[in-house]
Amino acid sequence: MQTWWLTVLGLAAGLCTSLSFVPQVLKAWREGDTEAISKRMYVASLIAYGLWIIHGLMIASTPVILFNAVNVVFAGIILALKLRSSRSAEAR
């Protein structure tokens, strides 16, 4: 298989993965509803995405680096909204 096809495949897979976060980010942002979101899951996800970025750097894979960086941003936003919501609930 030619190398450019592998890159295209990686870009398509990464795009699908990253776009899967968009509905969750929008719901948490608009509605502030983070009750069902697991803090532990998003912390674990952030660690995993960080490790994938390191792996991507080691193998020089643009799709791996790019989309895991995007996933760090999305997962970070969701986790921040969850933490903010948790603090607000504790203050009440």
Automatic annotation (TrEMBL):
Which UniProt keywords are listed? Membrane, Transmembrane, Transmembrane helix
Bilayer-spanning residue ranges:
6-29, 41-59, 65-83
Keyword Hydrolase listed? The answer is no
Does Lipoprotein show up as a keyword for this record? Answer: no
**Gene Ontology terms: cellular component:** membrane
What GO molecular functions are on record for this protein? Answer: sugar transmembrane transporter activity
Q: What is this protein called?
A: Sugar transporter SemiSWEET
Classification via InterPro entries: PQ-loop_rpt (IPR006603), SemiSWEET (IPR047662)
Subcellular location(s) of the protein: Membrane
Q: Which domain of life is it from?
A: Bacteria
Q: How does it sit in the membrane?
A: Multi-pass membrane protein
